[in-house]
Design a protein that fits this description.
Elements: H1 14-24, E1 33-34, E2 43-44, E3 52-59, H2 71-77, E4 81-87, E5 93-98, H3 111-128, E6 133-138, E7 143-149, H4 152-168, H5 179-189, E8 195-200, H6 207-219, E9 221-228, H7 230-233, E10 240-244, E11 249-253, H8 257-280, E12 284-289, H9 294-302, H10 304-315
Parallel strand pairs: 5-6, 5-8, 8-9, 9-12
Antiparallel strand pairs: 1-2, 3-4, 6-7, 10-11
Helix pairs in contact: 1-3, 3-4, 5-6, 9-10
Length: 316
């Protein structure tokens, strides 16, 4: 890649992804409030935050930390006792970014660019919440992963990977991974207790995917970030349109009523399947139109205003 890549509309801008860290600091509800679909309201995560809670006292055993000795109980019983603490579960933030060939599409902005911005913002938000952040990126022919760490270097490594995979879409290649295979690979990487965000258009969501998602949900707190373009909800007005993948060009005829209906039904069915899965798995669901401002959507889910409105609702 060269310096002009930062100004290429089909490649995510690296400096823009770095700047997202400032907005991510304002997501004060992240990730305590699970990202439910906007109309469905918020939902607290199943997993707790970090911390050490006192649990019980037992007789001191060789190897126990002397700093945990309960001196009051020891003095009363004349037998050394140590305090036992239960450690609350740590919750690494892992972002699974789908940058396969179907994401190289958009009427406003490319889905791939929007997906990169979402992924970067989520990683920064995890770091701002003092969680470990990392993830996996899947392209047409390859994938890479960044181990979750509580480090700016981990997030920077992740967003550099996002840019590289975004740029690789300029050279069309057949997809090596199906969504089901992508999810199967993710299962090997994700640690139990993680909060997982899957950023994708879910264009090939099927029964095999559902099986892997149910397995993931057994060990992780799932969230779906559904990236779509307005043209995917309904074809443009009846006419002939020139469309291109950057190298080849063809004509799209939107005058066929049956084609228009099949096209609209396919998107509607995919959305219904995602909503049903989110309910079954207690998973979050956030839709992102390519025309949306990424931080605005995340702020509605995790921002201060949303948190305060939930609090006022409980007090009334």
């Amino acid at each position: 890649m060269n310096q002009t890549d930062d100004n290429h509309p089909a490649i995510v801008n690296l400096s823009d992804m770095v700047k997202l860290r400032y907005g991510a600091r304002e997501l004060t509800g992240f990730p305590k409030i699970q990202a439910r679909q906007m109309l469905a309201g918020g939902h607290k995560s199943r997993f707790r935050g970090r911390g050490m809670d006192f649990d019980s006292v037992r007789i001191y055993q060789p190897g126990d930390d002397v700093r945990s000795i309960d001196w009051r109980v020891t003095a009363r019983t004349q037998t050394p006792h140590t305090k036992i603490f239960s450690e609350e579960r740590e919750r690494p933030i892992l972002v699974i970014s789908d940058l396969r060939s179907s994401m190289f599409f958009g009427s406003q902005r490319l889905k791939s660019v929007v997906a990169c911005e979402i992924s970067a913002a989520l990683a920064w938000a995890g770091l701002a919440a003092n969680d470990r952040a990392g993830g996996m990126i899947f392209g047409a022919q390859q994938q890479t992963d960044v181990k979750a760490r509580r480090s700016h270097h981990a997030v920077l490594q992740f967003i550099h990977g996002l840019k590289e995979f975004s740029a690789s879409l300029l050279e069309p290649e057949p997809d090596r991974y199906s969504l089901a295979e992508l999810l199967e690979e993710s299962r090997r990487f994700i640690m139990p207790g993680s909060t997982v965000f899957i950023v994708s258009d879910f264009h090939d969501l099927n029964a095999s995917c559902e099986r892997h998602l149910f397995e993931l949900a057994r060990h992780a707190n799932l969230n779906f970030c559904h990236v779509y373009d307005s043209i995917e909800t309904e074809l443009p007005p009846p006419s002939l349109y020139a469309v291109s993948d950057g190298q080849q060009q063809t004509i799209l005829d939107t005058r066929n009523d049956k084609l228009r209906q099949r096209f609209a039904d396919a998107f509607l069915k995919r959305g219904q399947t995602l909503r049903k899965l989110s309910e079954q798995l207690s998973a979050g669901l956030l839709p992102f139109d390519t025309a949306d401002n990424v931080m605005s959507v995340l702020a509605r889910a995790y921002g201060k205003r949303r948190t305060s409105s939930r609090s006022s609702g409980r007090s009334s």
